């Protein structure tokens, strides 16, 4: 399917690996030029070069911490005018509700709610002026079904979801759509870290920890970055202009809900 976005320009945050990289690859395959961002320069440059060679698109790589004011300023200066924004940032650490203090919540809000909002405010007005734009926020299945040990993420991402619900309807008349993708467990470094934690806690192998988690997913496997990226690219396409303010679950059926 021709997504109709060849020649568009996208900023994809946290895109040197994992789900962000999957989104960058899928957009590049559709002919979109990229501004890629991540904290660590080496892996970011490697990912950018691989995409340039494979898809023959223009790629600007900006190493910066997108969750800081200085980092955002650096990325936005390099990005210039973009048509597509993919918001993404690593989730807060797991823990116990009784251990989290104000500073823990502020850090989670800064990374997973206030950073995407700041980027939306910086980039969406020019999209509206041009009459076309796409924003995709990578959140979490925990927005639909809270995960007890990820309470910081539950709170911050739910806050962003509320903001997007209202804002998406206000910008839609200008031809700009904004939606969220809610990943369940995917085969990424985050999943490996969580499995390693269970392995250590329960005294089992990492493979056994993964197998036990996979058994809780109706699809009986982890998702891949490629299928996640394909969904992101579709939401950014010319075919998705009537999808506004939605929360798209990619969790293999993990959230047991009718709606």
Describe the structure concisely:
Belongs to the short-chain dehydrogenases/reductases (SDR) family. The protein has about 260 residues and is α/β, with parallel strands linked by helices.
Write structural notes for this entry:
The structure is a single chain. With 259 residues, the chain is α/β, with parallel strands linked by helices. It folds into two domains: 201 residues, NAD(P)-binding Rossmann-like Domain (Rossmann fold, 3-Layer(aba) Sandwich), CATH 3.40.50; 38 residues, no CATH class. The chain has eight helices and seven strands, in the order E-H-E-H-E-H-E-H-E-H-E-H-H-H-E. It has a seven-stranded parallel sheet with strand order 3-2-1-4-5-6-7, with helices on both faces. The longest helix is centred in the middle third of the chain and has 29 residues. The chain starts with 8 loop residues before the first strand and ends in a 9-residue tail after the last strand. The model has no long low-confidence stretch (mean pLDDT 96). It holds the Pfam family adh_short_C2. InterPro entries: NAD(P)-bd_dom_sf, SDR, SDR_fam. It comes from Litoreibacter albidus. Belongs to the short-chain dehydrogenases/reductases (SDR) family.
